[in-house]
Hints:
The protein is of the alpha/beta class. 49% of the residues lie in helices and 8% in strands. It has a five-stranded parallel β-sheet with strand order 5-4-3-7-6, covered by helices on one side.
Amino acid sequence: MACHSRIWSEDWWFFGRVRWMVDEARARKPTPAAGRASGGGGWRRAAVRTWMLRVGSSFLIWTAVVQLTSVWQPRLPRSWPAACFDRRSAGANATVDLSVIGGEEHGIYKSNGYLKVSCNGGLNQMRAAICDMVTIARHLNLTLVIPELDKTSFWADPSDFGDIFNVNHFINSLRDEVKIITALPKKFSSKIRTEPFTMPPVSWSSEKYYLKQILPLVRKHKVIHFNRTDARLANNGLPLRLQKLRCRINYEGLRFTPEIEALGDKLISILRRSGFFVVLHLRYEMDMLSFSGCTHGCSDKETEELTRMRYAFPWWKEKEIVSEKKRLEGLCPLTPEETTLVLRALGFTRDALIYIASGEIYGGERRMAALRASYPKIVRKEMLLSAEELRPFQNHSTQMAALDYLVSVASDVFVPTYDGNMAKVVEGHRRYAGFRRTIVLDRREIVELLDLLQDGKLSWDQFSTAVKEVHKNRMGQPTQRKVIPGRPKEEDYFYANPQECTGPSRISSIQSREFDI
Length: 517
């Protein structure tokens, strides 16, 4: 606009000068006799006046064109002074290009390079990581290549991103924030004779770390590859716009494939026919027990098997674990038997429909016997869907987990028996969806109460009353995330309580609701 103003003022000065000269010439216009006496001088003065008028008219037209282009952007020849026509090239960002995604201009976007990421972990750990990586790409103005998923962990699932998530929706729904591509451009990748610069970013880092440490590396190498993505962005202290972007990616940008969504909707519809239903995330699976070292209730043979497995995975750093010590600290998943007593104490009646969201329970039906005896209406996806419907998802644990995720978010009550990644991410999604009832079990208190009950130091009524009292404020109500500076692993996880995205309007709409069973 400064360029336009300068031209406008200069043009009017010049035009005023021309008008003065024309008026002056007219005032001195000679009489016919004088003109004849002067010979060709009168003709020359007339020619000068005509030339001045033409110059003045030309500048008036130029000024009109400049003003017109302030509201209309023409397609100009390269030789024209575009700096005075194109508002988008003015100022400090004069070299910024328009990025095009899917053939449409979406705004000013100058890519500083390319970001490739290899996610690690299960479905929900990777889901949160994808949200963080997109946020980082946006913050650094990087072009993100569709993330690679973990195929080498315990689950050994060969699924690619497009087998689980809707790629087109992912790209298009976030196109106004970040450019996402399915692969590095061939023209660009052909210049890279070696593997791209690879590194794991520092865990729980702020946005400043990525600006100061990572952006210079991208500018140097053009492509950077993050080979670890779990918990690489801080829970707290980030700008509000980045926190809200994490929510937008998680709750709007990441959708499962149409096939997974359709089957998940069918599961939810079947469960809804019975009315009220509970999802129990019974995290009593072999990998969790081996990783955590929790063997309470296991036989000696099972304990040996779990220990061998823990030593077989080098990336599970903790090897020597005292199971009972961890249990008393509340760091172990509840056993199926313990879970049965807690559900009864909380007031879930025998006729409750309970959907088990988990993989294969370690110990099989032997360990599930007490739970089934108290709650005969226990179901799993394998019981509600035909073998034919589940066949495309067999041997793809991540895709099966996606079905459980959808049912968990939609349930009337969600009860996780361990605060793993699925428990946390589902809890946060349910908060975002309107603070749906989620019972976050206080395992440390529960274990102490269970032991007192077993030792006969508490009656059943005392035990039940105590369990309800402990959890009266752990039913999914709005709360503030716990922040512990310098100890991010111990503070509340962003994706379990995205408070920046729930807002006062969502909170006020549920304040009158009773958060009990």
